[in-house]
Amino acid sequence: MPLEQANASPMPNGVTDPNYRPLPGRVGNLTVPQQHALQTLKTQLQDEGHFVQERMDDPMLLRFLRARKFDVPKAKEMLLAAEKWRQDMKVDEIVQNFDFTEKEQVDQYYPQYYHKMDKEGRPVYIERLGKLNVPALYEITTKERLLQRLILEYEKCVTERLPACSAAVGHPVETVCTILDLKGVSLSSFYKVSDFVNDASKIGQDRYPECMGKFYIINAPWTFTTVWSVIKRWLDEVTVSKIEIVGSSYQEKLLEAICAEDLPADLGGKCNCVGGCSLSDAGPWNQRRNGDA
Question: How far apart are CA 24 and CA 30, in angstroms?
């Protein structure tokens, strides 16, 4: 639907990019039924005492509505389940108190990190599953602490990284660009950590929906068809449609989406952060580190 026809929602505040056009179902591009669904969901949450002012802004509610195709009862069910999960997992306590002191050690055996932005302003998340060493990893940390770290990073992404990227590019940024590197991955290592990967997938899909913008799987070996058949079952169709599987000739594809200066050198870019890109946390959300070599 053309933007001019979707006039039920005004453009979001703070937009400085003159070329910005919200995607359908976002603030600034809502049909009348979508705007009504948003208001209905908000009113029901308020009337029932479930509304959390500091977190449940319109973009957040719209993520749950889009995940359930603007079916208000289903979106509310999903959101309330996420709220119960937050209580059960003590998310607020994790945000306030969790300290992943083993980060540098874990980085040697399972690198997972955010690093700068893609050309659309999305934070780039990189995971090197091929470097996974399960025995060494679980000598350093536990599955529970890995999940707590994952939750903390999701929270920081929503409250710090996405707002910082939005400010940097002059328009709302609501999704992440993910690179999953499978170079050297083995089926045995994957299956040893598959329960964690499964739990992590469910957290992203069910508790932080509609945060995936683009997902590149690179260095996919021929055995990946077996791994993919397992992972695919954990994901919904919309999520699967955003995933692009690339072999070892991935550099050109990544550089179409990410500037060479922002892509780590070991992935075909030109960035060599001091101390290593995987530990730099370089990006507009971290003014202390500019990522320069």
Answer: 6
Mean pLDDT over all residues of the chain?
Answer: 90
Tens digit of each residue's pLDDT (9 = 90 or more) over 7-38 = 568 888 889 999 999 999 999 999 999 999 99
- Which tens digit of pLDDT belongs to each residue from 195-234? 787 888 889 989 999 999 999 999 987 777 777 777 777 7
Cβ-based neighbour number of residue 157 at 10 Å: 20
Helix, strand or coil for residue 200? helix
Q: State residue 289's pLDDT score.
A: 53
Tell me how far apart the alpha carbons of residues 211 and 37 are, in angstroms, rounded to a whole number: 20
Give how far Cα 190 sits from Cα of 30, 73, 128, 130, Å. 41, 37, 12, 9
- Residues near 13 by beta carbon (within 8 Å), at least 6 away in sequence: none
Q: Does residue 149 or residue 240 have the better pLDDT? A: 149
Strands across the sheet containing 112-117: 112-117, 123-128, 176-181, 212-218, 243-245
Instruction: Give the separation between CA 293 and CA 275, rounded to whole angstroms.
Output: 9
Residue 156 has pLDDT above 80, yes or no: yes
Pairing relation of β-strands 123-128 and 176-181? parallel
Question: Torsion over CA of 245, 125, 20 and 156, rounded to 10 degrees?
Answer: 150
Q: CB under 8 Å to 264, separation ≥6 — which residues?
A: 115, 126, 271, 272, 273, 277, 278
> Which residue has tokens 């399972």?
110
Would you call 51 exposed, middle or buried from its count of C-beta atoms within 10 A (0-12, 13-18, 19+)?
middle
Helix (H/G/I), strand (E/B), else coil: 48: coil
